[in-house]
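[Meeting: bench + compute handoff]

Bench side (C.D.) handed over the final construct sequence. Compute side (W.E.) agreed to return the predicted structure before the next meeting so the bench team could plan truncations. Sequence as handed over:
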Amino acid sequence: MTELYIVRHGETRGNIMGFKQGQIDGAPSQLDDNGIKQAQNLHDRFDVSFADQLIVSPLTRAKDTANLLNAGRHLPVEVDDRLLEISYGDWDGQYDTDLKAKYQKYFIPGSNAVYPEYYKVAHGEQFTDVEKRVADFTDEIQEKYPNQKIIIVTHGFTVRSFAQNAVKATDPLAFKEPQNCSVTKIEIESGDQQALYYYGRVFE
């Protein structure tokens, strides 16, 4: 059995400012002071030294979170582009308030989350695009690292996509994006059978 422990990166200024970070990697998308504290807190309460490998998104907010988690643990680290956040296309870097003013019908009421059809106007990735690259990653990891424990540091929508795939959810809105520096655990049995052990757990 392969065990995946999937961590969402720590809080960024972009999370607080309310804009679509997507795949941008500029200054507003770096960890803020609270995001650093969140990652340090997780380091102290979720000791990753039990794992065999750490795999991380190439975006700085994820790599910085991974470095804080791995401090003193010295797990081998890989970077994988398939762990990138969803690309919101033309919306990357734009404020949610501005986007809602123009594209209200594509936003879920009461939140900054979008319906799957958003891509038609934003020219971004479809939800299923992210799920597909996450599925490809998961299949490869299960084959490459059977019977190992893997720490993954990635992004909110990507974590959500792991969970969607694991339970084969047909509702694209079945999972909300988890909190910053929360952990999701998925177990993969032989034959590619996946089980969602827990989702978005915050270690306090």
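W.E. noted at the follow-up: The mean pLDDT is 96. C.D. will use this when planning the next construct.
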